[in-house]
C-alpha cells in the first residue's frame, strides 16, 4: 500500500546524517532493501520520501544574537545543470553541476512564507547556531509525503 501511495522515485535516507550521506534515489522497488540498508548503516532511523517535482528552495536560519529570535536569510534556488539527475553528495560538493539563484525568484509573499516556515522549523527542531531548511516548490499539488520508520 505504501508503495502505491508514495510512487516512484523515492529517496531513502538516514534521519540524522545531512549532506546526502547515505541517501539513495530508488527508481525500482527491487533497489529498496539495499537502499534501506545503506541508510540504516548511517542512522537506525530511516526516512522514505516521495519525489516532489518542482523547484528546490533553501533558506538559512541563524540563531539570534544573545538568545534573541532566529533570523532567516533570503531564500536561494538550487538549479541542477542538464544531465544531473539529483542533488546528491557529488552534485553538492565534488562536481560543478549546480547553479544557485540568490535570492530565488519568488514573489514577496512566497519569500515571506519560506522565511517564516524556516524559522518555525528551526524552533520546532530546537536547532542551535546555523541551519539550512529545504523546500520543494512543487509544480502540482501532491497528496504524497514522507514515511519514516525506525529499524
TrEMBL record:
It comes from the Bacteria. SUPFAM superfamilies: Glutathione synthetase ATP-binding domain-like. Pfam families: Dala_Dala_lig_C. InterPro entries: ATP_grasp_subdomain_1 (IPR013815), Dala_Dala_lig_C (IPR011095). Residues 3-138 form the D-alanine--D-alanine ligase C-terminal domain. Coiled coil: none annotated. This is D-alanine--D-alanine ligase C-terminal domain-containing protein. It comes from Blastococcus brunescens.
